[in-house]
Amino acid sequence: MSSSDFEYPEFYSFPPFFTIQPVLSTREKQMALWQELILRYHTEKKIKTLVVHDCPLWKNESIGRQLSPEDIGVVMTEFCKSGHGEWQDDNETRCRILWRKPEQLATDIYQWAEANQMINNVCTVYELHSGEDVNGMSFQGADEELLRRALSILEDQGKAAIFKGDTSEEDGIKFF
């Protein structure tokens, strides 16, 4: 799927969207729209990392507008503050996209376990990430580190136990 296969929302063609707004209430709405756009784009395309200098979202050629480097920094700072992004490097050039926050994923995983009679049963991290039973689930194909953080939340809540396998893909999870 190329960026041309992505259906951009209507607000993406609104020229002021590409200039950080000075009025606080307007800026908050603008940042929420940027967050929505970044999440939807990366989720639909199953992209786990946003490379700041190589993101097609910053420029809309059809209206001749683009975010300045400073404004990209503002958008990305707010995006990370929202909990949906984490910098992967000190130079803030690569951002891990958290399609869903770890707490949300933990809830989704446990609801899946309940719906699929996995309570008191064991599955592997690989099955949660790539198994046939998880097609269409929010955690299918999720970043492994994010998936493990969600599982740790379930473990802390007493809803799961993680068992070490021979490889990380063979690590098991028992749901309670």
TrEMBL record:
Keyword Transport attached: yes
Example GO molecular function: protein homodimerization activity
Sorted UniProt keywords: Protein transport, Transport
Protein name in the entry: ESCRT-II complex subunit VPS25
Family to which the UniProt record says this protein belongs: Belongs to the VPS25 family.
GO CC terms, sorted: ESCRT II complex
Pfam families, per the entry: ESCRT-II
InterPro entries to which the protein is assigned, alphabetical: ESCRT-II_cplx_Vps25-sub (IPR008570), ESCRT-II_cplx_Vps25-sub_N (IPR014041), WH-like_DNA-bd_sf (IPR036388), WH_DNA-bd_sf (IPR036390)
Organism of provenance: Seminavis robusta
GO annotation, biological process: macroautophagy; protein transport to vacuole involved in ubiquitin-dependent protein catabolic process via the multivesicular body sorting pathway
